[in-house]
Amino acid sequence: LIFVAAAEQFGIPSVLGLNQRWFVLTTRIFYFLREYPQDYSMAATVAMVMLVFTGGMVFLRNRIIKKREFVTVGGKSFRPHVIPLGRWRYLTLSYLLSYIMLAVILPFGTFIAISFFKFWSIHPKLKYLTLENWNFILFEYPSTWIALKNSLFLSIVGAAVAVLISAVIAWVVVRTKAFGKDALDTIATLPVAVPGLILGVAYLWAWIRSPIPIYGTIWILMIVYVSRFIPYSLRSSESALRQIDKSLEESANISGASWLRTFWSVSLPLLKPGLVAGFILLFVTFMRELSCSILLYSSGTEVMSVTMFDLWHDGMFPNLAAIGTMQLVVTAVCLMLFSKLFKIRITEVVK
Predict the structure, then answer these.
(1) CATH T-level topology, domain 135-351
(2) By CB neighbour count within 10 A (0-12 exposed, 13-18 middle, 19+ buried), where does 247 fall?
């Protein structure tokens, strides 16, 4: 899964290598689709090569897992305990602090600082401090608020839809003996093997000439977001459902409740903690999605990631830093609101 996640990366390789013509498979596909004249046949060929590799890795992973049995051995409860590190504690602390400094504080601090300078250099000077970047992003650049509105709508509504669909699929797969439930589970998890850019290409070609007027609207982004990331919430829903005793649902069935009433009144409330955690994780994922959006957006359906990509492409790096900082703040505020609303700690969701 890490291999697939690394292979489908588009944003980082495009920012670091596209201008220097250092290509990976995803940026090569994007290049074929955006150059003039567009070369759809080569884009499809590279996409198929990439799909074979990623699909093969997912197939191999499933074969390995199916041959093993996973059993938790332990008592009725588990209590975590502290492991004394002894003389290694200072080395471990230094390693962790170094990682936090180099991987989190330094890049994010630099990114935020750039938003307050007219331009960025190796030796920035205080005389170049300015709020013009923020004034441009907040009041002069119309795409900012359009992209923010679209991103919040897709992230909140899309995450809720994906979590609800995954809960229904998980209940059918785990609790019922419905015909074709294994096929349903396989189809629902199939997007894991498909890199985001390839999925975007597939939706582009499937809907661009469709009689249903969905291409060029925000709804095509909603569909591709949900279909791409539903496997992540599906696995957590199935895991949570397996921990719920069947006797509760059987009691509802004996009392005359239909399967829909049983799911809505019994299963869904018990799944709430897992579903809330899945919703929050999908919200963050939807807010930063780029691979599919870059191919499917149109005027009026821009999202934050696409807007930042356009600013980078135009060389407006301080403005890019400002809108990126804005997205960080908005995401953090939303997570705090979700934490208060659902009475859940965000750190527990991450764990």
Answers:
(1) MetI-like fold (1.10.3720)
(2) exposed
